Amino acid sequence: MFMALTQTTIRFNISANGVVKEEVLGVPCNQCETTTKKIEAELGDIENRVYKADYYEPCPIDQPHILSQAE
Question: How many angstroms separate the CA atoms of 13 and 46, rounded?
């Protein structure tokens, strides 16, 4: 079985007053929070989160662990 790989991109916009805006691309469901957890801990307090539509999509199921009903 061939599984397509996606690229994860994290964009940062740092304003002149030091406010950091972070955007996560290519990560399904709530995995964006796991992806950025360590970075955010180093950056400091989070004032606001805005979730994209991808956040509310169901997380993918780890297909190799699913057994067919015939097994």
Answer: 14
**Burial code of 38-63, b = ≥16 C-beta within 10 A, e = fewer?**
eeeeeeeeeeeeeeeeebeeeeeeee
Cα separation of 50 and 18, whole Å? 19
Write down the pTM of the prediction.
0.67
> What does the pLDDT look like over 5-20, one tens digit per residue?
678 899 999 999 988 9
Domains of the chain, by residue range, sit at 10-57
Phi, psi of 36 (to 5 degrees): -105, 5
- DSSP symbols for 19-40: -EEEEEES--TTHHHHHHHHHH
Chain Cα centroid distance, residue 33? 6
